[in-house]
Design goal:
Blueprint (H helix, E strand, L loop, with lengths): L1 H134 L6 H9 L1
Length: 151
Amino acid sequence: MYNNMYVVFHRSHIKTLEESFQRREARLQDETELLITQHNEKLRMLDTEKSDIQTSNMRKITMLETSKEAEVERLKELHRKTIDVMRQEHEEEVAHLRKLKVLISAFLVSLMELAFLKSFPLSICSSFLFHCFISLKPPITFLGILRLSMK
C-alpha cells in the first residue's frame, strides 16, 4: 500500500509539476510574444523615424543645392555685369586716349607751324640782309623786301 500511495503521490506530484511547467511555459511564451510584439513595434517606429529623417535630410539637401545653384547663378550674373562695365570703361578710355593722341598730334603740328612761322621773318630778314650786303643797295619798300626774299 505504501507503494501504491507512493505511486499516487508521485503521479500527483508529477501532474502538479507538469501543470506548473505548462503554466510557466505558457507564461514565458506570452511574455516572449509580448516582447516580440514590443520589439516589432519599436522596430517599425524606428524605421518610420529613420525614413522621416532621411526624407527631411533629402529635402534639406535639395534646398541647399537649389540655394547654392541660385547663388552661383547670381555671382555669375554679377561677374558678367562687372566685366561688361569694365569692358565699356576700357573702350571709353581707349577712345579718350585716341582723342588725346589726335589732339597731341594737332598740337605738335601747330607748334611746328608756329616755329616755322617764327623762323620765316628771320629767314626773310637774313635773306634781306644778305642781299643788302651783296648789292649794297638798301631796298626802299616792303614789296621790294618781299621780292628779294622770294628769289
